[in-house]
Amino acid sequence: LAREVSFKDLRNAVPAGVQRSTGQGSFLEPRPARIRFLRSIRGANAAIQRALFLRRRPAKPSVDRGLVLYRDTNGWCPFCERVWLALELMGVDYSVRTVNLQTKDKGFLRLADAFSPTGRSSVPVVTTPDGGYVVWESMDILHWLSGKTSNDWPGVSGTSESVFAGTDTARFLSDGTLVQVAKDKGPTRRIPALDMGSGGSKVTPLPKATEGQLVYISGVMSAMGKVTAAFGGGPETEEEKTEAVAKAVQALNALEAAFDEDKGPFLGGDKPSAADCAVAPFLGRYPRDPTVRATKELSALAEREAGTRWPRIAGWYSAMGKLPAFAATVEADNFSAAKLRGTFAAYALEWSRKAEAGEKLEGPYAKKRSPEEVAALEARVADSKEACAAALPSPDEARAFLASVEFTGMPSARSARVLARREAAANLAAAGPAVAADAIKGIAADSAEEDAGAPSTAEAEALVRLIATALLSSAPGTPTATLEQSESLLASDLGADALDAAACKRIAAVADHIASRLCCPRDMGAPAGAHVRAACVVAAAVLTAA
Known about the structure:
Blueprint: H1 7-13, H2 46-51, E1 67-72, H3 78-90, E2 94-99, H4 106-115, E3 125-127, E4 134-136, H5 138-145, H6 161-164, E5 170-172, E6 178-181, E7 188-191, H7 211-227, H8 238-258, H9 274-285, H10 290-294, H11 299-302, H12 311-321, H13 324-329, H14 334-356, H15 371-391, H16 395-403, H17 413-446, H18 457-471, H19 478-484, H20 486-494, H21 501-517, H22 526-545
Parallel strand pairs: 1-2
Antiparallel strand pairs: 1-3, 3-4, 5-6, 6-7
């Protein structure tokens, strides 16, 4: 950990292909997706444009060339997680571009204006690396990735738009071509079927979803959405709650019946399918929802694989939980789930105050709330903070976790643990300066006059390098042994004179900030996040003692 060890050195030390927990879906460096100005010229002759070199024929979608996934910055969008999970399960090479849904950049808005079949500038979106082909809406993308054709099943009229969003303006042809029509714009976009190419041997095909499966999934999403506490809503009376719970139980019973135990634990049989990807982000959230946990009729969901009321759904939880791709893209840890609940409640409070002040707002939070609703949201924010504090491991628990060889919920405990550590180190090495800058900004905003103040860039980056270095080891006890030497290693990095008591306090604050700021799966998969959080807790304890 000498000063000359840089983030670049750390990136070079990380084995290839571990940016996410699966080690699949290596990240490409695609040409920027762009909208050429001639696409806005309707009726122009394409052949003339090509002859004048004004318009090039885009390369057809292929696994050999890879794909680009646009998803939300926070990593909380379940519709993005559907596609993200599918790409990881398939092992397709892809790159990720994040979109801030509050302040969308002009390039993404232009993309939406030209291609969105619903007219919304929503995510997820998948494009080819050259931006020549664009696929919008999560279910359309899943169908396209799984090779759906017009021969598989007919249209989806009458089904829930929450699952089939966008498909009312899209259709698949017999050769797998997806036809999407930009809403109110007129142009018809034809996206050729994804060519499995010469890379087909390394890519796992995604089994297709059936219409019946998606109808059951839609029913569960609709019914559970009325029960859970998302967006500060939920039933307002006991009668409404009782009715909502009854409908949720009915929908879960229907989904339970959709599984075929003779073929395997997934909706797709022995392998997860597009239908499993469609429901995974939602079934993954329900067990940690406080309303679900507190509702007797639904509490079996909170038990996941140990639940007895819906044994086939319990078997699905067990099988899905063993997939590294699920842990990398969908699974949150207890800390992140608790923080998410508090964040949504805080958003609802903020927007409610703005609505009360007369501001014109749009969206799920944009409404005035009764004093009782405000009190409930404030209580949820307070509960979230308490749950987050309880979810952080103690120093002794963190040391034991880093030193242990067992890792529940993942196959091949030793290899899963090594893979998670490497993923954690890869993410810290790639985003180290940004992580350090975020910590400096956050600590400066919260610092009181009597505090040691905000850390310097050198101090914050040294801590991030220390954590990444400790996690690069594959030996069970090595991370803990490295972190126990935090003071001496940081002194070697920064210089002994620079590491006084105040500096130790500032750097410990960086570790605390990262531990409480890290969100899974936004920043990394849940297994990798557990290692980073534990390492930060140990480093903070050692430096505080120093």
